[in-house]
Amino acid sequence: MAKKEEKNFEEKLEELEKLVKEIESGEVPLEEVIEKFNQAMVLANECDKKLKDATKAVQKIINENGEEVSEN
Question: Domain coordinates of the chain in residue numbers?
Fold first, then answer.
């Protein structure tokens, strides 16, 4: 069985934007809106985790170089 290739951050973000537009259009039946909303939440959480991981990686690199890091 072939393993399903995972989408990268940009692909997930693009899919999330598409889902949001479909939901906001008002032309999707309620059952589909609920399904699309659930998909959107999964994608949003995955994107959020990826961004947080990237931020931590950048902060680690900056810290290793001895530069000051300000946390917002």
Answer: 9-64
DSSP assignment of 28-72 equals: S-HHHHHHHHHHHHHHHHHHHHHHHHHHHHHHHHHHHTT------
List all residues 6 or more positions away from 33 whose beta carbon is below 8 Å from its beta carbon: 23
For 4-48, the pLDDT digits (tens) are 678 899 999 999 999 999 999 999 999 999 999 999 999 999 999
How far apart (Å, rounded) are the C-alpha atoms in residues 1 and 56?
35
Kindly provide the residue ranges of all beta strands, DSSP E only, lying in 1-72, ordered along the sequence.
none
d(Cα 5, Cα 52) in Å, to the nearest integer?
22
Give the single-character DSSP code of 68: -
Output the pTM of the full model: 0.74
Name the one residue in this structure whose structure tokens are 């997930």.
12
